[in-house]
Amino acid sequence: xNFLTNFWNLVIESAPWLLIGYLLAGIINQVIPSSWVxxxxxxxxxxxxxxxxxxxAPLPLCSCGVIPTALAIRKAGxxxxxxxxxxxxxxxxxxxxxxxxxxxxxxxxxLMRPIGALTSAIIAGVLVNTFDKEDSVxxxxxxxxxxxxxxxxxxxQVIPPLSERLISAVKYGYGRMISDTAxxxxxxxxxxxxxxxxxxQSFFLxxxxxxxxxxxxxxxxxxxYICATASTPVAASLLFAGISPGAALVxxxxxxxxxxxxxxxxxxxxxxRSLLAYLIGVIGTAIVCGLLLNEFYxxxxxxxxxxxxxHGESYPLWRQLAAIALVGLIARVWVQPLFSKKSSLGTTxxxx
Length: 352
Fold this sequence. Notes:
Layout: H1 2-31, H2 34-41, H3 46-56, H4 66-75, H5 80-92, H6 95-105, H7 107-131, H8 136-156, H9 162-198, H10 211-221, H11 228-241, H12 245-257, H13 260-269, H14 272-300, H15 317-351
């Protein structure tokens, strides 16, 4: 029963912020077209790396969704560094994960997470461009041709009315975005509840709060296929189990950006040298940010604000309704295909 209580309390705490984050993700999807992103990053140099980080950070794409977008950007003429920067910043943070971080971990993590993501994205992009230079002439030719194509496409595109864009934003946020993240969000919430229920608070203290604890978090997060939103409750449960704030930040930065799928795409599309520079940039920056965060907590005596550690007996009705709505939207991802299969089977039987 304790597990179910912890799980439901975490859902109630996070539901309003997740629902807001998903809606913002849908609005951003309608406001920022993919053709504009490709055009902005299809330029060589440091500026495109910085743009890749700042454009990718708020975009509503998870670890799986960012891969085809990054490949499209690369084919449009973006440099290896800009592509890598986009690949780092996009899954490491986002409007949904930032709002979720604020709800579960407090304002400090909600601020440090995007700062760490942007920093690691820019450094990874610079390292990739430095250690794996490419033919600039070929890049410029591809950029010029892709810019012409994108300009033609933009001329042909017709912007729909505001009402239709708002409806599309809601459908995308509460449809496509939840479908893309439902499985890993559910896994993250369940894992957080399990760790909170079964792991004693002193378990992770054996590794201390310094560099070794952060290396452990890198090893844990490196192969995981987890999005930024799903990594938030896991990080909160790890904090509750005794790891330092810096180690939790390392997990949230490395987990979404270094999964096996992303590393495989980088190796195939950009090469082994780019992959090595990518990993050095992401892991090195995450550890530095983690060490700095620990220093800040000690220097300013900041308290940890873990909502999942608070066991209130009751919650406002609106928060409970938000939790029910979130559970319903997530459950629809698995239930809806079952009804579709039954209806298709029924139609086939009638035809026979």
